[in-house]
Design a protein that fits this description.
single chain; alpha+beta; CRO Repressor; four-stranded antiparallel sheet; 8 strands; flat
Length: 224
């Protein structure tokens, strides 16, 4: 039992490190080559986890080999556009000027139901609202709407709203996040002043506080 537990921990750590080395995203955003590597890694890890008679290196070495190969291919794809298309494919325009591209849909084996479902997931009611829509190599749908179908923006209404920045967590469960404070050029004393201004006695009573580089803040006090 202890051996199986230890082998599982080692393989788990190896897979986590391997995927971190790939430096990639969510499963739905993986390129085809990355998805293949991810599936193969899971299969390779499962064998030595389930069968203690199989050498641990029989799983670790192939996993490291696959990751090294994927990193090498990623580097080569950065340098060579043709090679990038071979491994990752290319984007395909499936809607142009409000009309579905039947040829591209056939090439990708996409049905009209699947295209309409993808549009609904983007809160688009009809292809007529779309000037251009593209299926990315990752399978995600990117699109550009006609101006009349685009959401209203402040510039369209000649408004000048307050500036917004990227909110960073500066306090979490009563503890300051020093790295984010340094990024904002602030000290703990600066945060404490803001907290007292919000009529909260101490830092330890703050459940969450975010702050951006424009001075916009959000503070939620711990519930009693």
């Amino acid at each position: 039992m202890a051996i199986s537990f230890l082998r599982t921990l080692i393989l788990y750590a190896t897979i986590i490190i391997a995927l971190r080395l790939m430096g990639k995203r969510q499963v739905g955003e993986l390129e085809p080559s990355e998805l293949v590597v991810t599936i193969l890694i899971s299969e390779l890890a499962a064998i030595p986890m389930q069968d203690v008679t199989v050498s641990l290196f029989a799983g670790v070495i192939p996993i490291l080999t696959l990751i090294s190969l994927e990193i090498l291919i990623s580097f080569l794809c950065l340098k060579n556009r043709r090679l990038r298309r071979v491994f990752n494919g290319r984007a395909a325009v499936i809607i142009q000027n409000g009309k579905l591209n039947r040829k591209k849909m056939a090439d990708l084996r996409l049905t009209t139901d699947e295209v309409m479902e993808a549009l609904r997931q983007k809160n688009i009611a009809s292809p007529a609202e779309v000037k251009c829509a593209v299926i990315e190599p990752s399978g995600q749908l990117s699109y550009v709407l006609y101006p009349k179908s685009q959401p209203v923006t402040a510039s369209m209404l000649d408004l000048d709203p307050p500036q917004q920045g990227l909110p960073l967590i500066v306090v979490s469960d009563g503890k300051p996040i020093l790295g984010n404070l340094r990024q904002l050029g602030l000290e703990i004393s600066d945060i404490e002043k803001r907290i007292r201004k919000a009529r909260i006695p101490s830092l330890s009573e703050v459940f969450l506080m975010t702050l951006d580089d424009c001075g916009n803040e959000f503070i939620q006090r711990k519930e009693v």
